[in-house]
UniProtKB/TrEMBL annotation:
Keywords: Signal. The keyword Signal applies. Pfam families: PCuAC (PF04314). This is Copper chaperone PCu(A)C. InterPro entries: LpqE-like, Lxx211020-like, PCuAC_sf. Residues 1-22 form the signal peptide.
Amino acid sequence: MTMASAFRQFLLILLVSAGAFAVADGVQVNDAWVRGLPPGQPVTAAFLTLHNTGDSVVSLEQMSSPVAKRVELHSHAMVDGTMQMRKVEQLSLQPDETLVLAPGGYHLMLFGLQRPLRDGEEVQLNLCFDETCVKVTAPVVSVLKESSHAHSGHAHHH
Ligand SMILES: [Cu+2]
């Protein structure tokens, strides 16, 4: 390999890692972000888009983050006129299926935050699909900057 081609390869790796984009075994993870809440909140939510680019069904089995004690997959559903969230035990993606985790719908719930998350900082999320795990870099977006259309109904008042 010449110096020039080695350098090009190095640039390519940089570009891929800068895109907040990850692939594991046919799963693409895009547009990941974490909701930044005022200090003192032990819980927050993370959102992203999953796309199965492979030929077989993939299941999201395990999630974790260095900034939280526990990460769960939740959904929101209207139950008797009120929005409730539930833990989702297993999520499967069919080939070519795209699933958007967004405020008001599916989300990753980060429990037991070790410290306040600052607006703009990057948080690592680990998603394990079947046998393969993928590390996702997700920027923190302050809840104050979220669009007013994206009502989440996701408050955890105490
Ligand atoms: Cu939740």
